[in-house]
Amino acid sequence: MKLTILGGGGFRVPLVYGALLADRGEGRVTEVVLHDLDDRRLYAVTRVLREQATGVPDAPRVTATTDLDQALTGAGFVFSAIRVGGLAGRADDERVALAEGVLGQETVGAGGIAYGLRTVPVAVDIARRVARLAPDAWVINFTNPAGLVTEAMSRHLGDRVIGICDSPVGLGRRIARVLGADPKEAHIDYVGLNHLGWVRGLHVAGRDELPRLLADPALLGSFEEGRLFGADWLQSLGAIPNEYLHYYYFNRDAVRAYQQAEQTRGAFLRDQQARFYAEALRTDRPALDVWNRTRAEREATYMAENRESAGAGERAAEDLSGGYEKVALALMRAIARDERTTLILNVRNRSTLPVLDADAVIEVPCLVDANGAHPVAVAPLPGHATGLVCSVKAVEREVLAAAGSGSRQTAVKAFALHPLVDSVNVARRLVAGYIEVHPGLAYLK
User: Fold this and answer.
1) What predicted TM-score, i.e. pTM, was given to this entire model?
2) Closest CA to 431 of 149, 114, 144, 120
């Protein structure tokens, strides 16, 4: 089976390949095609994968190309992990937003909108090519903002595109661990949008164990989200929010922390990964060692500004292992081998959340089999969560409309309607600022 990875020169590709190396079942991936616009990045990552495969019998064959149509033709699965504008673009997103006193994070607030406006036209082109060149392929979307991009692609691929994120998986794993439960045996009641969801229950052997956690301040303070949000606030919510909701609940604190930081996250990653690729291209040192060292630093500094503003301390060692590649492999195996499983995914709503229409992409537990991912029924969201979900989904729809029409006025509307952008005038300046620094937004007229 052929797996095509778009953004194949990306830093996290070795995580996916490592998961494939450990998969020994029937119907496994035998060929991996890496596609990227940058042949130097492709070469560096290919070196890492080659070293990963050392001593592994029947390791999937790896090829690399800058020809998109060639990469897609004949693919059984397509992983989309592109970054339009690169990490320099992410750093610019942050800088323009922070200059206006609003958040520039790559998926939340102004930064997420700017990233979406750059990415949606490219993602739509990819979706159309997949429909033409690999109509039977399943597209697994990693590209951020994951929910927005998945919805854009679903308009051309229907349910054959599925978005994934490791945040809900990591959150559920941490909660289960604190409660002394096996994460594999726990069912997580999670609902929302990508980077905007809440755990409302964790069921083990038919019993909801979350109330026990919420009643114990010491337990709440023993894991990442408890330290990040504080026990009192989690008890008030009666749920455990995805870590990205820290940007909403503690917005002023987060913006201030980012403004005071030596570097934004995007600037840090831009510089760090420039060093990685420069080192990985050198043939006098093992590329895999360079990648491992860079990855450890990357994971340890994740959301560092938020943790500092909340006094949450360093990330726990057990939270540095990532996980999105495991979700991707589990999803692919469930579809390819009909190994039925339940995963939290980004899929079309259908009738899952009545406050949203059927085509809105949401993030919920899904039953996965050979026919794809099917969202399970969930209880309605409480009012405060409903308002936030509907507001952000409305913004996503304006982003899609602006990307489709090229309307600058609609782009301004998308920024102005976001809960974390508090002024129409700020929205106008943001659009002007982003068009100035991003050639890819020249289509907005």
Assistant:
1) 0.94
2) 114
